[in-house]
Amino acid sequence: SPTGEVPAPFAHPAEYEFARILDFYGIEWQYEPRSFPLRWEYGHVVEAFTPDFYLPDLNMYVEVTTLKTGLTGEKNRKMRLLKELYPEVNIKLLKKRDYLRLLAKYGYGPPAAEQVPEIDRVLITATKIQRRVGELGARISHDYAGKEPVLIGILRGVICFMSDLMRNISLPAAAVDFMAVTSYEGNGSGAVRIIKDLDENIKGRDVILVEDIVDTGMTLNHVLEYLGSKRPASLKVCTLLDKRVRRIADVPLEYVGFEIPDEFVVGYGLDFRQRFRNLPFIALLKHELLP
Q1: How many CB atoms lie within 10 A of CB 290?
Q2: Contact 258/241 with Cβ under 8 angstroms?
Q3: Which are the contacts of 253, defined by CB distance < 8 A and separation ≥ 6?
Q4: pLDDT tens digit sequence for 180-216
Q5: How far apart are CA 249 and CA 246, in angstroms?
Q6: Architecture of domain 126-289
Q7: Rounded Cα distance, 154 and 126, in Å
Q8: CA distance readout (Å), 26 to 20, 189, 240, 284
Q9: What local confidence, expressed as pLDDT, does residue 268 receive?
């Protein structure tokens, strides 16, 4: 918790702490953006209520309180009156212990940030991921209308993205298959070894190769050449993350979720030494943990 003076524009340390938590999870916030008139006399507003925060991603106002239960009567009175006068407004009164519970309810990480101290900050929230995956699924559904594409995922990092993407594709007959590849050292050519090949025959079929992240493009380029040798009718790439700054091989990406900086990211299927795959967001790992 912050000590001493509270930085502007906050009026209380609890507000500052809540803003820091929102920043950690990459949640957009606005501080006291609107006042709601509650009582009028002779045409003039004599009482109003200004919630501390508005969260556009959740369409929610939040009032932060540190008062004990017996001392919150005045705030509760104003909250009840606001809800009566503005029933369309979504507003929550939160005590400190409620912060992370509320965010966890909306898909922003585990119940307590302390459970992932290795995380520096959240780069892409769960809400933004799901929204973008929905958009990609809609595009693919439109582009492949009347066709029966085969989605091919590269294990293991793609598993979360693949499962969500296929649920957002409205085509009735889209097939799914998986490959697993591994890099190996020796000749410096950037070659890879296929350790799990396709089960589906893709000759003459429309193929969408689904990746979790593309950085140098070397592995992806090898996989595309391999799949191309099987003579599909078409072959395109859909990747959740594009780390374009590291690109070496010029690989075509038809569908891209997010372009990201040159940072080590985890979550939503991506791991560090087999950890963090299950996080619902994509986050930056603290630099001191990297080899």
Answers
A1: 9
A2: yes
A3: 214, 237, 238, 239, 242
A4: 998 754 444 456 788 999 999 999 999 999 999 999 8
A5: 9
A6: 3-Layer(aba) Sandwich (3.40)
A7: 22
A8: 10, 39, 18, 11
A9: 93
Gyration radius of the chain's alpha carbons: 24
First to last CA, the chain: 31
Q: Taking Cα atoms as reference points, which of 260, 258, 153 lies closest to residue 208? A: 153
- Tell me the whole-structure pTM to 2 decimals: 0.67
Mean pLDDT of the chain: 86
pLDDT digits (tens, 9 = 90+) for 248-267: 888 999 999 999 999 999 99
**H helical segments located in the chain:** 13-24, 73-85, 99-105, 126-143, 159-167, 218-228
Rounded CA separation 166/161 (Å): 9
Measured CA to CA in angstroms, residue 224 lies from 15, 152, 196, 248 at distances of 51, 11, 15, 15
Quick one: average pLDDT of 152-174? Answer: 92
192-196: strand order across its sheet: 192-196, 175-183, 150-155, 206-214, 234-242, 255-259
CATH code: domain 13-109 is 3.40.960
Catalytic residues: 215
For 40, residues 6+ apart whose C-beta sits below 8 A from its C-beta are 46
Domain boundaries, the chain: 13-109, 126-289
